[in-house]
Structure formats: C-alpha cells, structure tokens
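Two folds, back to back.
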Amino acid sequence: MKQKVKKIINFEYVKKGKDTLQKKAVKYLGAFLLIMIGCTMLSRFADSLTIPVIKTEKPKVKTMVDEVKASGRVVKNREEKISIIEGLKIEYVNVSIGTLIKTGDVLVELNTEALQKKIDEINENISSEEKTLARAKEDYNRAIASKNSNVSNALEEMNKAKKALEDYQALPEEEKDKAMEESLKGDYESKKSMHASAVAEANDTVDLDRTLQDVKDSLKLDEYYEELGKLQPLLDANGKVTSPKEGIVTSVFAENGGVTSDAVVSIADKESGYKFVGQIESSKRTTVKQGQTVALKLSSGGYVENLTIEAISKSEESADFLNVTVVLPAGTGEIDDTGEIIISSQAKKYSTCVPLAALRQGENNSYYVLAVGEKETVLGSEKVARKYEVQIEKKDNEFAALKEGSFSRSEQVIISSNKTVEDGDRVRLETE
C-alpha cells in the first residue's frame, strides 16, 4: 500500500504527443470566453456603481382640502394717539413701547416752570387781542350811531318841511301865493329825498361789517382760549400727562429733556382687542372671501376657531400679495405674536396623486414626472427613466393631484435618487 501511494506522489506526466491545431483552437476559445465573462462581470459591477439608485411610489387616490395658510402677526385693532400741545418741555417719560397701562397712569411729566410761562404768554396775548377787538367794536358802533343820527336829523328836517307846506296849504285862498307854495313843495321834496338817502346809507353796513370781521379774523382769541383750556389742567396736575384708558403703548413720541409734538404716545385699546393680519399670494384670491370662517394658529401655542375674515386688501409691501384681516376676541394674543390663518373650503377626491418630490419643473412653468420603464438590450431587459408631461389640478403640503389622463396610476413614479436622473437614463431600484 505504501508503495502505491509513493508511486502516485512521484507520478510525472509523460507527454505522449504534440497538440493538434484543433486542440489549440479549443484552448484559445475557452480562454477567450473566460476573459469575456470576467470582463462582462467587471463591466456589470462598474455599471452598477454608476447607475442611479432610485426610490419609486405608485400614484394614490387622495382627498384634498382647498386649504390656504396666511402667515402674519397680531397687530393693534384700534390705536389712539394721546394728543397734547406742541412745544412743551418734557422732564420725564414714564413709559416705553409695550408698556401695559391703566387709566390714570402717568405717561410723561412736563416742566411746570415752562408750562407756567407758556400760560402767562397766552394770557398776555388774550388781553392784548381783547383790547383790539373792543376798539374795533367801539369804532363799529360809533359809525352805526352816526348813520342813525343822520337818519334822525333828516327825518326831523323832512317833517318840518312837510308841516310848513301843510300849514301854508291850510290858509284861505286869498292869502296864498302860488310861488310860495311851489317853493314849500320843493323844499319838502328835497328834505324827503335827503331822508331816503340817509336811510339807505344807514342800512348799508357792508364796509363796516367787513372791517370788523377782518379784525376778528386777524385775532387768535379762540385758539388762545382753546390752548389755555388744555394747559391750565396740566399745570393744575403738576405737569403730569395721564392715560385716559387702559391699553398697551405702541409708539412713543417723547423723550426726556425734549419738547412735545402733537402727541406723546399711541395706545392700542385693549378693550377693543387685537387683530391678526396675514398675507396670501394674489393668485389665491378666489379661495378667500370676506366673511369666511377661518381658524388661527399662534406660534405661542394658541388656537382659535370660528373667526371671520373682516377685510381683504392689497398689501402695501408687494402687489403680489393680499392682506387678510381677522379681528381677535378680547384677551386673545399679544402685539407682535406670529402665526397663520388657516382658510379651508370644500374637500375633493383626486384619483391620481403623486408626492411633491416626484414633480419636476419643465419649460414655461410646465411640470413633468419620471417613471420607471423597461428597455430591451443585447444584454437583456433594463430599467430606464421615462418622462411624462403632467398637468396639476391641486396641491397640498405633501401631494400633487394630476389631471385625469396625464399619467397612469399603474406607473411607478421616481420620488428620489442618489444621482441626477434624466429621461432615458438607466436606473436601478433601491431594493435590487
């Protein structure tokens, strides 16, 4: 047995004869095929590294709601300026923007010395102008009295002439002189005419009225009295300007050591509540109507339903947007809280809905999707991307509803890939 094993180990191949041409051809062909198979496998492996790996999804039937969201913020519903006389010196400003104030809270404190000086100046102006007005009235009354005196004198002269004529006419005929009678008649008619002229002149007071009115117009007594009526209470309150109502300060127009303008602060009336102003694209105007019921979601966590759209107006910031305004119930939100109005209308079922990730932008604002197709090659069947032009009927936050007939529900639409994919490119499913 040991000898047999040793014989086998020491076996040497003894070539019995030379290879024929046919044997050599077979050997070369086999080697060639082995090389081709290796190259094909290597090519397939390299190709698998370059082919995009994709995820797909079939279109779905989905119910969508015509929901529009208008992002914005809480603003004052009604704002009121606390007015004051301009030019008063300010000692202290006791509020700032956002300060919550109650009725009677001190907003600013004025310099009482400057306030007293201002009142004294107004009183001097009132005294001076009252004297001017009094003199103008005296002149007016004197002129009227003169006209009335002329009328009285003319009437007296006319009556004397009339009596003289009547007395002469009462004499016996033998005592009358025709020339004398004519002279008395002429005198009476003359005095009568003079009386009529005096009466007409007395009734014509246009020039006198105009002169008096011009003097009144040149005076500022009404303004001075009005200003004094505002200043005196401030002095009586030691220069403290207080709030007439409860609210929140939205603007401050005063500063320490400065002077007052026409107002010191603006206050949002808290009792009237606030309003929320959100913006939507102008293209969505048909989905929003005044009086429509909406909901409001605030970033602070508040959620309010059954609010009503009070107004829809053009945005001053951009012509491409609209402002949508809803009034908030008292106690809802605070100034500058952010959030969004949720505007919903009737729901509708769509039979062909694809994820938004599947949509691709084409030319002229068109859209298309890529689906997985089959292509026959010499190496067998391959998966390729196929382009389909689509029309969109509706979108929500996740899906787009395609117009019926623009895409088949049986197709697998590409929703993602690890490389850029174009129409006709070879693709490989992620699960392969």
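---
second:
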Amino acid sequence: MSASGRAYRYVGPHHVIAAVQSADSGATIRIAADFADWVVARTAEELDEPFTFVVGTDGALRLAPRRSEHVACASGDRVLSAGEISFYTEAGRWTVNEVSNQSTGYCPDVASWLAVAQALDQASLDHPDYFTHAVVFRRCPTCQEHNIVREGHFVCVFCDADLPRRWNVDLNADDPDGP
C-alpha cells in the first residue's frame, strides 16, 4: 500500500486492459544495478524522451517506452503510482529530470508521490522532491466522467458540475471486489 493508503486500479478503457498480456510488462527496477542494466540497453533517442512508469504494489519501479500503456507496464495489476519520467546524467550519475503522475488509465492522486520517491530512493536515483508536473484527476459526481483539473478550476469539462476537492476517481480503489 502507498503512503497515501491507496492502491490504484486501472480505470481507463476496457479494450486497453483486455489487450494486456504479461509480456507487455515494464522492466522492473528495484536497485541501482537494475537501472544500470536497463539504461545501457536504451538508445540515445529513447533517452531523449520520457518513459512510462508505474510503481507496483510491491514498491518496485517499472519502466516502459513512453507510448506504452500504464496498465501494460503494470501487467494489469494495481499500482501505487503511475506517470511519465525522464532521466539525464550529471557527473556520471543518472538523475530524474522530470516526473509526473500523468496516467489517464490509473488517474493517481498527487499524494502518490511518496511511493514514487521511495521507489526512486530504493533504486538509488536522485530525484526532485515532488512531481515536476502534478496532474489533479477527479471524477464528476454528476456525469461520472474523468477530468483533469486545470488551474485550480474544479468544474467538469463535460457537464459544468462542481468537482470534489478530494481525489475520487475510483472510490473502490482499495476494494479488490470493487467495480
């Protein structure tokens, strides 16, 4: 469970999760040696772009190419966080450049940062102290659509209803038998 007490279920389109196969899962990065092995297999072009990431419920970071689905990176499982991440080298050491919780498949709360920081620390990767681009997700209680809150404007873009201030995308996120 994450520091926020939440494991996120996939809430995106059903056809995407139906297409997930175990072979689609991301590379698991638990320790610095895992990252070193993973990064040497990447091309310069790949390293110029962000990567898809998830933090599994086991606390491990998983990385996949940017255009990968988060749910595929997670092998269809619940996650403690998900988003995009980029890296750069500084004085011969790999460092996280940017990291966000941008995942419309899981819609993780910004509170999921703690799970990301713990996974990056475990892999000995220097990182910022927070999401460099934090995305605020909410589900509209009126029309049930998922929204990205922009500029603190908590209003549904689909029906103009007020959005809650607290994360509510999947109220049964921790219930294994939830919808």
